[in-house]
Structure formats: structure tokens, C-alpha cells
Amino acid sequence: MNAHDEPQKTPDGHHVVINGRKWRATDPSLPEDVAARLRRHLMAARRAVRSATTADDASAERLARARVQHAKVALGERGTPWWEQSPDQRRRRWEDHLAKLDADAPDQQDS
């Protein structure tokens, strides 16, 4: 699959299929700018997990994994399925988790 190709989706659109494995799809109601911010948070958190595990820093790893969880829930990929939520619940989900991610972002911390 080319990096610019869209992954195959299930007929209901709830999941994507990557290498034969089903994963929950990102909530399609997310505004693109919000989804992009959440993906940046997710990638930064995943890098932080890798750094923490390499450094054998259990505390930093727990914090980084919590950030991954917030980003995945905000994207609609974990937690209550987005297709079972009302539009207001979906908006509150990503707004609340994005606010938490923004507030806790390492580059936002006071030195």
C-alpha cells in the first residue's frame, strides 16, 4: 500500500483493514484540522513511549501511554464507538481529550 493510499474500509465504515487486520476507523466527523492535531499528539506520545522504554523510565512510560490513550479516544479509535455516540457526544469527546493533550504537551510545560 502506498503511503498516500487510503486503507480499505469495512462496508459499514466503522473499521479499516490493514495487512488483513481490522482496526477501528477514525471518527469521520472530526474536522481535518482537529484530526491533524490529534495525530501529531499521537505520534509525539508514541515517540515518548519509545524513549521512555529505551531509558527504562517506568514513570515516563506510564505518562506517555496515557497520552496515547487520550489521543486514540479523541480520534474515536478507542472508548465508546463513535457510531454509538450522538454528534454532541462525539464533539465533547474530542474537545475534552484534545484540551487535555494540549495542556499536558511536553512543549507546553514550564521549564
Automatic annotation (TrEMBL):
Q: Where is this region: Disordered?
A: 1-27, 74-111
Q: Where is the composition biased (Basic and acidic residues)?
A: 1-15, 87-103
Listed name of the protein: Biopolymer transporter Tol
**What's the source species for this entry?**
Streptomyces dioscori
